[in-house]
Specification:
two-stranded antiparallel sheet; 50% helix; elongated
Length: 254
């Protein structure tokens, strides 16, 4: 089914940038970037098409339901939502209202905005895809996000840091979405929309840092003296202190 779904949308091949990268030279960058290739994946449009195909196979062809739209509704409500974990049904905007759009958290990010933008630009430059008429190395895509976390030794060890799966989910939930987020790269204007749908712009990147601060049980050992990591709910300032520690840590080498 995957082979039948994976369409040619004109996405340019990714190229690694060999120079001017912020890597620490540990030889892991290739591994972490290869975990997020597009070669055997489907985008959101193709995923929705897969749901329709599954609904037809499961309900229509079996004779249980004659109407395709009813079959799709049954598949989504009974087979997907009915068995999905609570985290998969979370409201991204509710998270933003509750934790991102808070003055005290915004103050932490604003106070470090210049350095955060510099860090963001360093990792955006790793994105070597060349899209006609504009450059995609102005935004951070999933491989660059994972690379940043890898360089900062942020993947979980002994209960500290975050899981690889959490890192991917944080990236996906931090992106701003729009109705036309799956449009073709073959058109310059529409291609910019498509690029935005698979990238973190700078505000998205800041949101991703807030999400890391929320889910990580502790900063990694590499953070050293930067770690001030109270448990969630310890007091009403726990996230401010976590975010402050996190930002100081990720900016420590700049």
């Amino acid at each position: 089914m995957l082979q039948g779904l994976n369409s040619d949308d004109g996405r340019p091949a990714r190229q690694d940038a060999d120079a001017g990268t912020p890597h620490k030279g540990k030889g892991k960058e290739k591994d972490v970037r290869e975990k997020s290739t597009d070669k055997k994946s489907i985008d959101r449009r193709e995923f929705l098409q897969a749901l329709v195909r599954l609904a037809v196979m499961k309900y229509v062809k079996s004779g249980k339901i004659a109407d395709v739209s009813t079959a799709v509704r049954m598949l989504v409500t009974e087979n997907l939502i009915g068995h999905a974990p609570a985290g998969a049904l979370s409201d991204n905007n509710e998270f933003r209202r509750a934790l991102c759009y808070k003055e005290e958290n915004d103050n932490v990010l604003q106070a470090n905005a210049a350095q955060l933008r510099s860090l963001y630009a360093c990792y955006a430059k790793l994105n070597g895809a060349d899209l006609k008429g504009y450059s995609s190395n102005q935004t951070i895509e999933l491989p660059e996000w994972l690379q940043l976390l890898e360089d900062r030794e942020f993947f979980e060890v002994d209960g500290k840091g975050i899981k690889f799966s959490q890192a991917v989910i944080i990236f996906l939930r931090s992106r701003m979405r729009c109705r036309d987020d799956g449009l073709s790269f073959k058109d310059k204007t529409l291609g910019k929309m498509a690029l935005a749908s698979r990238s973190l712009n700078f505000p998205d990147f800041c949101e991703a840092l807030v999400r890391v601060a929320v889910v990580a049980e502790a900063l990694p050992d590499a953070a050293g003296d930067y770690a001030d990591w109270p448990p969630a709910g310890a007091d009403d300032q726990w996230l401010v202190r976590r975010l402050t520690s996190l930002v100081r840590f990720v900016l420590s080498d700049l």
